[in-house]
Amino acid sequence: MPVPHPETVAVVAGRPPHTPDQPMNTPVHLVSNYVGGGQLEYGRFGNPSWTAFEDALGELEGGRAVSFASGMAAISAVLDLVPAGGRIVAPRHSYTGTIGQLEDVAARGLAEVVFVDIADADAVREAVSGAAMLWIESPTNPALEVADLPRITADAHAAGAVVVVDNTFATPLRQRPIEAGADLVVHSVTKYLAGHSDLVMGAVVAAREEDAAALAARRTLRGGIPSPLDAFLALRGLRTLHVRLDRAEANARELVARLGGHPALEVRYPGFGAIVSIVVRGGAEAADAFVAATRLWVHATSLGGVESTLERRRRWAAEPATIPAGLVRLSVGIEHIDDLADDLLAALV
Ligand SMILES: *Cc1c(COP(=O)(O)O)cnc(C)c1O
């Protein structure tokens, strides 16, 4: 059989073998203790419901996946790989939780952290000299800056740094960082991969087997394991990722076209995916009035679900001050485009 397309992988990967009476889906394995002497032994070491999800995500990203309790648990397992005192270079507009963890390890003297504009490849090249790790997020949350992955990855490798990409916004259907040379890919599974706003989970995909083993060992040691039910639900969500993303992205493109030129705002869109940021010209107050006036769009912080949500990011104190106060991040869902556009335009007047 030729190599299947990603849309096929999303549907077929991580299933039990095609033999009589095998279940079509790996069931939820609610278990803490296994009969000893085998591969699993204990519920913190392994679970078949995790493995089914990991097989599917690993195949989509082109590496070996390890699942975690949350995106934040996945991020902390990766940061644990930095040797004591090593330097980490990261985007100044990273996810606020990532910035929080980086500032925490720096404050405790565990690592040195340098923030850069990840879209400025020359600045990244300069900063990675002598670094242990280059952390990339692209597009960034919520500024939507796009990094030149192959170029900055090559520069980081030349400098001896490990390259990590938070691929939460793009998903493996729009960006495959391991093909671009990255060593590790991080996901908040909570968002697009699971896609239904009903669970919190994370994952790391490693290009190399030994890195996956090291991350699984960190998971066992620190205990940041996913719930078997969440892993089951995340895999069920992953089965429709391509269908959801195609529709959400088509909606996002159409919304960008319909909002473009509106006098009250400036639109930012990286050209792919289903996150759009709009900067309301009237600032924080006008943006707050706007998000309070929508009826269909839900004011909520998370993203990547089938339903459309929006949020003024600077309502959080942790959001960098370089993000405009009136910036509202839209997570475009899979509803009918006319309903989505009409609701936003009505709320803007
Ligand atoms: C939400 C998010 C995270 C954190 O993931 P959790 O599942 O909430 O712990 C990390 N990176 C990005 C880009 C995110 O959007």
Explain what you see:
The modification N6-(pyridoxal phosphate)lysine is found at residue 191. Its cofactor is pyridoxal 5'-phosphate. GO terms for molecular function: cystathionine gamma-lyase activity; cystathionine gamma-synthase activity; homocysteine desulfhydrase activity; methionine gamma-lyase activity; pyridoxal phosphate binding. By secondary structure, the chain is an alpha/beta fold. It folds into two domains: 6-239, Type I PLP-dependent aspartate aminotransferase-like (Major domain) (Aspartate Aminotransferase, domain 2, 3-Layer(aba) Sandwich); 242-347, Alpha-Beta Complex (Aspartate Aminotransferase, domain 1). It is built from eleven helices and twelve strands. It has a seven-stranded mixed beta sheet with strand order 1-7-6-5-4-2-3, with helices on both faces. A five-stranded mixed beta sheet has the order 8-9-12-11-10, with helices on one face. Helix 1 runs antiparallel to helix 2, helix 3 (71-79) packs parallel to helix 4 and helix 9 (241-259) packs across helix 11. The N and C termini lie far apart (55 Å). The mean pLDDT is 97. The structure holds pyridoxal-5'-phosphate (PLP).
